[in-house]
């Protein structure tokens, strides 16, 4: 049965870096993974080392254009089949995982019909994988639109600050308001130092947040970012990679 993990968090917390490190760790454990970049900023491919990827946004615009065309030669064109073939075309097959990029949000016009088709396609697609890992938008728009309907584990990434933890608390509340099909909600504190570690544990307890991990401030990540090296190539003994392994164990892998 497919397990779905989604990672969210406000900008600047290292959400995409955490998503990439989780994908890296889980791909080494023999999981057949679909990585989904559902953030309009589309940073996950670069973080993983993928370039020039196509997006679902392009496929949706293509189908939207097809819907409006008069088709006397083929009035019974199966639009779901057309969109499904486009989705499969843009999946990037990488060593250890497949990558699907949602792309930019809709432009002018109504995409409700296309979104409905896409939901059905994604329902079928995710069943082909052991695990789906989603780098989601901070505002949880993809959950409210329910492009991907069921989430087993939602991970909220926060920085090592009270404000960051308050944001995690608000996201927790928003998820409950949306009445989404989400199983468990966890929090990961990123860029943690020895000076603030104990305070963050107490803050999580105060806010009743399930703090599943604290990733130390890792100079290796900053170095790789400056040099343009994908996080998929981070050494196993880096402090961030080691903590990600602990988190993966807590998630049941």
UniProtKB/TrEMBL annotation:
Keywords: ATP-binding, Nucleotide-binding, Oxidoreductase. InterPro entries: CobQ/CobB/MinD/ParA_Nub-bd_dom (IPR002586), CooC (IPR014433), P-loop_NTPase (IPR027417), ParA/MinD_ATPase (IPR050625). One of its GO terms (biological process) is negative regulation of cell division. It comes from Methanosarcina mazei (strain ATCC BAA-159 / DSM 3647 / Goe1 / Go1 / JCM 11833 / OCM 88). The keyword Nucleotide-binding applies. Pfam families: CbiA. It is an enzyme of class 1 (oxidoreductase). GO terms for molecular function: ATP binding; ATP hydrolysis activity; nitrogenase activity. GO terms for cellular component: cytoplasmic side of plasma membrane; cytosol. The keyword Aminoacyl-tRNA synthetase does not apply. This is Nitrogenase iron protein. Residues 5-230 form the CobQ/CobB/MinD/ParA nucleotide binding domain. It comes from the Archaea. Its EC number is 1.18.6.1.
């Amino acid at each position: 049965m497919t397990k779905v993990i989604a990672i969210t968090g406000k900008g600047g917390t290292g959400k995409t870096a955490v998503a990439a490190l989780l994908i890296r760790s889980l791909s080494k454990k023999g999981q057949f993974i679909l990585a989904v970049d559902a953030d309009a900023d589309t940073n996950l491919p670069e973080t993983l080392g993928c370039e020039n990827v196509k997006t679902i946004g392009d496929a949706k615009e293509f189908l939207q254009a097809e819907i409006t065309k008069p088709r006397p030669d083929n009035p019974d064109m199966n639009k779901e089949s057309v969109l499904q073939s486009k989705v499969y075309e843009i999946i990037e097959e990488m060593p250890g995982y497949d990558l699907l990029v949602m792309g930019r949000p809709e432009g002018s016009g109504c995409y409700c019909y296309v979104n409905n088709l896409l939901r059905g396609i994604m329902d079928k697609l995710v069943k082909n994988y052991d695990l789906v890992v989603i780098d989601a938008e901070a505002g949880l728009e993809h959950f409210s639109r329910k492009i991907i309907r069921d989430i087993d584990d939602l991970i909220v990434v926060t920085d090592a600050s009270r404000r960051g933890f308050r944001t995690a608390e608000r996201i927790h509340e928003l998820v409950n308001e949306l009445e989404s099909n989400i199983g468990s909600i966890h929090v990961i504190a990123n860029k943690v130092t020895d000076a603030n570690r104990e305070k963050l544990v107490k803050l999580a307890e105060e806010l009743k947040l399930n703090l599943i991990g604290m990733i130390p401030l890792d100079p290796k990540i900053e170095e790789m970012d400056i040099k343009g090296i994908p996080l998929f190539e981070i050494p196993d003994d880096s402090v961030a990679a080691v903590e990600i392994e602990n988190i993966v164990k807590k998630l049941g892998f």
